[in-house]
Amino acid sequence: MAVRTDGQIQPHASTQDMFRLDRHVAIVTGAAGLLGEQHALALSDAGAHVVLVDRDVETCQQRARQITEHSQVKALALSCDVTKKSSWEDVLQQVLSEFGRVDVLVNNAAFTTQSRSKNYDRGFLEFPLEDWNQILEVNLAGTFLGCQVIGSELIKRRSGSIINLASLYGVVSPNHRLYPGTGIHQPVAYSVSKAGVLALTRYLATLWADQGVRVNCITPGGVFNGHAELFATRFGALCPSSRMARPDEMRGALVYLASSASSYCTGHNLVVDGGWTAW
Ligand SMILES: NC(=O)c1ccc[n+]([C@@H]2O[C@H](COP(=O)([O-])OP(=O)(O)OC[C@H]3O[C@@H](n4cnc5c(N)ncnc54)[C@H](O)[C@@H]3O)[C@@H](O)[C@H]2O)c1
User: Fold this and answer.
1) Which of 67, 80, 223, 260 has its CA 20 to 30 A from that of 42?
2) Best of 27, 28, 34 to mutate for ligand 1, by most ligand atoms within 8 A of CB?
């Protein structure tokens, strides 16, 4: 027996079927980035039509083409600035006119070490308020707006799953000894924004739990993306799994949280960090 997102028992569904997302429509922000691509691939593999959203719409278009060539699902690329409510409203309107429904939202877009703000590398004492505001605007306000605009549609349907990408550094502090000499920096605003994403997730999860809408987080550990060898070596020495994550190692967590396999799971922070926070 399986349980649907609306809590009804679905006789004869296998455990494997609980992870399927056939006919579902999933929006992934930051889909032009490292993990965004993996999220779109994972959801389409599970049978969902995917909407790849980013400021960089050309990369999303290429990725959408590859998905449609290699699967039975539809993939749509849309331009969106997650910090603008009107941009989110355009996304919702286009998704509804193309598919007539939305089931899953993955709030993944962010200022990261890859897509850095102008002064991302500056130390705490010199960190400009301008960059603090920009990082919080994308990582936290962008997630808030996505939950508000797309969440309103999920509430209407009384069904849906929102997955917010948090970070290890919203749970624990970055280990400041990792960075000197590596050319990599972890600004305070990033950590604070991700701690905010965790709080937003819990707030909405409890607000909407009895309305059929689940809200959870994934907290990835450090994902390898051509990092300097010195950084990767130091990271490996501090991580119980002795290495950084591969980009595809978030896929299982995402499909679990998007699907009815996690129908009784809301307000959770699923940490996929190779054990980093366990010691
Ligand atoms: N990669 C890691 O090691 C890691 C670790 C922990 C958490 N995370 C989180 O996972 C998520 C994905 O990380 P990633 O490594 O793929 O990042 P990435 O930098 O590769 O991709 C981020 C994407 O967000 C987009 N973006 C930035 N501002 C935007 C805006 N205003 N509107 C729309 N799109 C915008 C960028 O264009 C980019 O494509 C992020 O939320 C990040 O904080 C990543």
Assistant:
1) 80
2) 34
Give, using CA atoms, the residue closest to atom 2 of ligand 1: 223
Q: Please write the tens of the pLDDT for every residue from 106-147.
A: 999 999 988 777 888 899 999 999 999 999 999 999 999 999
Residue ranges of the chain whose pLDDT lies below 50: 1-3
Is 109 a pocket residue for ligand 1 (Cβ < 6 Å)?
yes
Sign of torsion, CA 96 65 116 205? Answer: positive
Task: Report d(CA 196, CA 147) in Å as an integer.
Answer: 13
Cα 278 off chain centre by: 22
Q: Give the integer Cα–Cα distance in Å for 67 and 54.
A: 16
CA distance 53 to 76: 8
Query: How is residue 275 written in tokens?
Result: 């054990």
What is the DSSP annotation of 262-277?
Answer: GTT--S-EEEESTTGG
Selecting among 120, 169, 179, 190, the annotated active-site residue is 190
Ligand 1 midpoint to CA 84 (Å): 17
CA of 161 relative to ligand 1 center, distance in Å? 20
Rounded to two decimals, the pTM is: 0.96
Task: Output the CA torsion sign for 141, 145, 148, 150.
Answer: negative
Cβ atoms of residues 142 and 107 within 8 Å: yes
Please give the pLDDT value at position 126: 94
- Among the four given CATH numbers 3.40.50.720, 2.30.110.10, 2.60.40.10, 3.30.750.24, the one describing domain 2-269: 3.40.50.720
8 Å CB contact between 44 and 67: yes
Structure tokens given for 105: 């939202």
Active site residue 190: yes
The whole-angstrom separation of Cα 244 and Cα 242 is: 7
